[in-house]
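User: I've been going back and forth on whether these two constructs are worth ordering. Before I decide, could you fold them both?

Assistant: Sure. I'll take them in the order you sent them. The first construct and its structure tokens:
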Amino acid sequence: MRTDVFALRHIGIREEDLPEMLKTVQVDNLEQLIYETLPDDIRLKKPLDLPMAMSEHEFLTHLQKLSEKNKVFKSYIGLGYHESLTPSPIKRNILENPGWYTAYTPYQAEIAQGRLEALLNFQTMICDLTGMELANASLLDESTSAAEAMTMLYEVRSRDQKKNNTVKFFVSEEVLPQTLSLLKTRAIPLGIELVIGDHGSFEFTNDFYGALLQYPGKYGQVNDYASFVAKAKEQEIKVAVAADILSLVLLTPPGEFGADVVVGTTQRFGIPLGYGGPHAAFFATKDEYKRSIPGRIIGVTKDTDGKPALRMALQTREQHIKRDKATSNICTAQVLLAVMAGMYGVYHGPRGLKYIADKVHSSTATLADALEKLGLFQTNTSYFDTILVKADAKLVRPEAEKNEVNFFYPDADTVSISLNEATSLKDLQQIADIFAKALSKEGVKIDSLSPKTIIDGSIKRTSSFMENAVFNSFHSETQLMRYIKKLERKDLALNHSMISLGSCTMKLNAASEMLPLSTPQWGNIHPFVPVEQAEGYQIMLKELEQDLNVITGFAGTSLQPNSGAQGEYAGLMTIRAYHESNGDHNRNICLIPASAHGTNPASAVMAGMKVVVTKTDEKGNIDVGDLEAKVEQHKENLAALMVTYPSTHGVFESSIKHITKLIHDNGGQVYMDGANMNAQVGITNPAAIGADVCHLNLHKTFAIPHGGGGPGVGPICVAEQLVPFLPGNPLIKTGGEKAITAISAAPWGSSLVCLISYGYIKMLGEKGLTHSTKIAILNANYIKHRLSGKFDVLYTGEMGRAAHEMIIDCRPFKENGIEVTDIAKRLMDYGFHSPTVSFPVAGTMMIEPTESEGLSELNRFCDAMLSIRAEIDEASLENSANVLKNAPHTLDMVTNDNWEFPYSRQKAAFPLPYVSENKFWPSIRRVDEAYGDRNLICTCAPIEAYAEA
């Protein structure tokens, strides 16, 4: 075996495994299987034009050299991004730990209690700091959260406001520029009218439904908003506040002066800058809006035995349930980053956070005093960490950059300076020296921090926060390490066994792809530095864009969207802009097959389109006849078709080119959902099937880890006619010549984790990428054949093949009293995470093994499924006391003195011999979902308190 070929490390199937597998799937070779799986007219006729594959050593050396092209200056730019210090035990035990970064979204609560507890900590911390009643488990970035606040408040308008078409939303001119850009993007298609102005002179009238304030303002001024909020309430105007999380340690929480929503980012709680992301945003609101809050909420419930348990509550997947009635398409959160930020709060505790916030504020006051001694005027009357200095930017900037320091320059006569946790006395002295030198002044000496505070008494925080035991118990490294390990042991991740989730592609996240994320040359660069300081990033991002162009067959790529659902929205907004540029303002109909991902219709509505659902036939394919009828009916107003390929049912539909031509012939554009791209790379592509735009889930096909529900990256790749409309950014030039406004806060979205996909492509190369696709298809068909006769596969292609995933039908087992959920829970006893349950068809499982699983693991999974099938045969409607209905079985159950079940303890816990070699114990019994929703508790007041609730 060649030890320097990454493909041999990434792909689990060995050359010697192929004969057995090919025999099982009844083909002579791999090429025959591919021929029988996808239509010949969409096969690529030549290999992908990509560079030769690098070895892991070559890649890491290459990336090190590339990182040296980045200039890591001290950045005091602010604008929502600040250098922070990641505690080493959090970096080592979470960020660099596959037990945390390879876990899936915690839909199977019984094997995700650790992550759920970490997220409950995060939610509690956010509620305490913001003064709000309810917080979700994170959103994508601060600007996205602010936009979600605007749309949520629009949704919860009063009956009279809806009746009177009240659509005005006030935005303070103090709001961050990237947030304002994103608000414009979201507002236009929904008909929301933004009014931007001075909050101090805002005229409160009844034609406004909401307002957004920044706290502190974009250049550091801290305003007392109490009277503004009181006046807004008199006019039934609801108020959202975008707040700096660290400042809330010292400032009055927005919840205490009447805010309805508080949003922001937790980036400065130990998360690297990463040239823009990923970072965990927060969204906190009042309990009365719990049915409207976007994203995921972790709630407390109980298990079968009445013991406290955690699970995702309420509208966990509301966009899949409500579809085009959904208020948001939010799917991916930023769980890994929220876990890190929450653990930062655990490690430092309230006293530690107070120390950090005091130090940041004292440093700012000290710097202001020093600059005043130089004769410089500072304009903020009350501030936390940012001062606004009147000085000639043309003189200051060259001197600052010569000393490898970045400030922000709002205009020619102003310098904005935002300090942070990492700012030392030495740094303060350097800043003062820069101004002295630039302005030819005599220097001043800074040898200690000023004890004074520049926060008005009316806005000083007086309330306590984070009093829960979890924030006051783990302040030594030993304690924190053990707490993190305790939580990790409760979660089943890819470092334990295969996670065969259809539509989610839980493949290997190689260590060589992950290692660079920990290095300061990549991690410590502000997203708004001059682009020449980020040359390494620029080279990497441009090459990644080009590689994705080659892979998709398209002409341009935007890496800005930082989730798959956001990519959907971005793609549809480029289509919208394209039609409008052609004068086709009437084109607003979006055709979506009934089998589509639930985020598709939600995204279309957010983009201002009207959803028309088309039927699927009995084989699960698009009903071409119904599609033709709908196209004919709506051809004058047709904007787009959204199609997933291979289909959500795991099939390469042979009519796809006919379908895309039909849309184009009637003036529409084709959006391809790239969720299933792992079945396309190297053998076909979106351009080959006739699509115009697709999003790619880099957290699926291109190896960015799921991190328990995020980070995700969902770039869009577009055909030539759509390139001019790729999204821009108000501070850094990006996007097309006619760029739409921002889709996410940072110019290139979550740039740091793009290193992973860059490495994935560079180390696999054309041959490795193509072979990965073929093996993914082989693995799926191998499982299909091994389960044949025991489980029916619902949909297949014309030659009976699955693509990279398949749907097995579990509905017949209702005759035995067994539901698909019972099978999912029983799989935990065998050491496996369940495949996707009841999507896209209720009562089914969608299985996707990926290419990085080996034959032995595929066989273990199949053995488990076949063993469960035999257990189903033993069950009956009359007797529910069976091994499936009681699954999962916990260590507490199996070691209890009382055993009242009609089967043995061994059958419960060790159903097959391999299980005992590597047993994973679910930490709770089956959760009571209904109880948790009836008794919604989403913060971690001592968890014992809920046991008797």
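The second construct, handled the same way:
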Amino acid sequence: MSAVTVLNNQATAATDAEPALTDGFQLVIDALKLNGIENLYVVPGIPISDLLRMAQGEGLRVISFRHEQNAGNAAAIAGFLTKKPGVCMTVSAPGFLNGLTALANATTNCFPMILISGSSEREIVDLQQGDYEEMDQLAIAKPLCKAAFRVLHAQDIGIAVARAIRAAVSGRPGGVYLDLPAKLFSQVMDAAEGARSLVKVVDAAPAQLPSPDSVARALEVLKGAKRPLIILGKGAAYAQADEAVRELVEKSGIPFLPMSMAKGLLPDTHPQSAGAARSMVLKDADVVVLVGARLNWLLSHGKGKTWGEPGSKTFIQIDIEPREMDSNVAIVAPLVGDIGSCVSALTAGMAKGWTPPPAEWTGAVSARKEANIAKMAPKLMSNASPMNFHGALGALRRVVQERPEALLVNEGANTLDLARGIIDMHQPRKRLDVGTWGVMGIGMGFAVAAAVESGKPVLAVEGDSAFGFSGMEVETICRYKLPVCIVVFNNNGIYKGTDVNPTGGSDPSPMVFVPDSRYDKMMEAFGGEGVNVTTPDELYRAVSAAMDSGKPTLINAVIDPNAGSESGNIGSLNPTSAVRKGPKA
């Protein structure tokens, strides 16, 4: 054997003996994959660009947006739809701040979400020495989310991802921030040791059973009710305890009122649905069962004229967060636990001889509902041009009725308020809207995630003002060839398109947009389908074709500029000057 051969063999042996290595990039990816994360909603840039390339190479689906807030909104609604935390990744400082609105909104709405942002070096940030995009992101995030963590060492990535996942989904779900300084990604460690450092989260959101005493108390209160009502919130939809909720409603015989994102948990056409008699049942009910719904501003805090005579209501509340009880009014029968366990316990406690509500009550609710539906019907059948909101939404109501599996995304002022009551939903978790904060700009992010997570067609019904917050993401929809049909209700402005500059100057009113804009041309610019419609019949045909084709489509629906009302249904929240009265649209 020659000396050269010996040296080569020695070199090969030495190489073979070298331990395999891994780094921070790979450990982040491995930790997410180990815990069942399949999709990332992102905006690339320093320091996460290579991470995203590697993630895609490792089989994760990476959906790249044009703005971090929209990527964050996508991650948030992905969490709502799947009960797994949606993951958004952003660059540092400005990118992090753009994603923070979505993170805070996710926490407010109880959507499990993780915002992962790159950040500047700790040593420079802490001494405020002016690093690239220097910002103490962890400190900023903490007050706005459920939990926030920073990772400084590669060996801690696995435990940090596990803690973030558990924090996001356990108890009341919410947003979590994970801070990854740039130099973490390039840290190298032994691959076997790195694999051992990863943590697979087990039973992240265990069932939390209500106490037997609380169940007995609630049943006793219900037994004495003459005019009971069940209110279903989006928490009930998130729980995915659909059959348990249905069994409770149907066995009890109690009318139910769904909040907007709980629509479809039982079909809006269900005989016990009181959606079309909302004002009546809130005012006249004597015992109200809140299932995953909070007595916040959306329910007038449980008091005031919406709820009839003061002291006329008794509340039973099911919530996983004990601090939610008594937040605005006394809860005489709190049930603390997960919704599936709580509603199942109530149903089990209803013996065979359970007495349904008096026919006087259920009959009165049905009569009011039928009268209101009959009163609304002619408005929904209008084929006027230019369209009003009722005629246009009547057309979309037909589209959704014929395609109950489709997801509906909805935002705006009048567009949101009226669609909430007009468009019936038939399956759970199919209606996605602005939620607790009523924040505009969720539309395109929600639409993208709805298509990605469900694989079903998506109909996004947008006010022209609301669409402007995230409209550039039509390029994202086209790039990923997603089955999303966007309908922009275009009435040339905010609330109405008729406001004027009170000075008579050349600047337009801040409440109006360029008249007769053609939003459909935006979609065409990126290779999607664009359609302009002026009547409900045209709208129905165009949306039906788009939903059936699965092609990215934007329909510019021309609405009468005079249609709409100031602030929609929340005009009472819009303060007015007692000294100076300006013209109102």
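Notes on the second construct follow. The chain has 23 helices and 19 strands. The radius of gyration is 27 Å.
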